[in-house]
Design a protein that fits this description.
- By secondary structure, this protein is α/β, with parallel strands linked by helices.
- The protein folds into two domains: about 5-85, Orthogonal Bundle (434 Repressor (Amino-terminal Domain)), CATH 1.10.260.40; about 90-280, Endonuclease Chain A (Endonuclease, Chain A), CATH 3.30.870.
- It has helices at about 5-20, 30-35, 40-50, 55-65, 70-85, 90, 100-110, 130-145, 150-160, 185-200, 245-260, 265-280; strands at about 85-90, 115-120, 170-175, 205-210, 225, 230-235, 240-245.
- A seven-stranded mixed sheet has the order 1-7-6-5-2-3-4.
- The longest helix is centred in the N-terminal third of the chain and has 19 residues, at about 5-20.
Amino acid sequence: MSTDYQQAREALGVRLRELRLSCPEGRLTGSALARRLGWPNSKVSKLELGRQTATPEDLERWAAACGQAASYDELRARLAGFESHIRSWRRQLGGGHRPVQDAHNDAQARSKVLRAWESSWIVGVLQTPDYARAVLTRSVELHGSPRDVEDAVRARMKRQELLYSGGRRYHVVLWEPVLRSLVCSPSVLAAQLDRLSGVIGMDTVELGIVPLTASLTVPPGLGFWIYDDSQVVTEAWHAELWLDDADSVALYLRTWRALHASAVYGPQAHHLIHTARRALDPT
């Protein structure tokens, strides 16, 4: 978790404590507030110490329990400020996967130069519908989120219109194991690799593959996108991070350039894709 994020969470905790101690009817102890809210004492403590992230409902109930309901808007604004950088999957996926896809569509539509590194799967903008369906279905199963897979697939496919609309350039680098990872059935992966081969040579896409035999100056790590060299989006198991501070963006740019330098392109990339494809159908 980033230092800025943790500091913001702790600052919110300080403000919650201030509200508890300044109740119009007299200061509340942590235990008294917990009883009023029907929470364990530990939750009040964790929120005040910045060890747990409040939900909007938590903030609304806290403000009301402290007799200061009008403070909710201020608390919600504080929460939104640091949630804009770290977006938990639990909250994002509460309404299904379609809204998440729409957010990425908007971000990519606003960008002119897009750089991607992916070490786990084919990036969404280059996926086939069946491959996207398999990946999204596994995400639904992992997070227990609403099953709006078909809506999410359609939204992800709509993103691919940006490949043909002109005015932007995609620089995508994949790690070779992505070509062989069975996050879907072999037949779906075979069709996906055929699609990937067809991308090579497009004037809007530069596709590189980092071979397993390549010498790496940085470890593969998690996948990420960089939009117009000013915003980074990366995923962890618990959350999606949207970073726009200069130091973070500069670090990810250095990482991407190091991985880009280790990749092969054109005929060499096509050979790696073809080799992976042939392994799925050796006959």
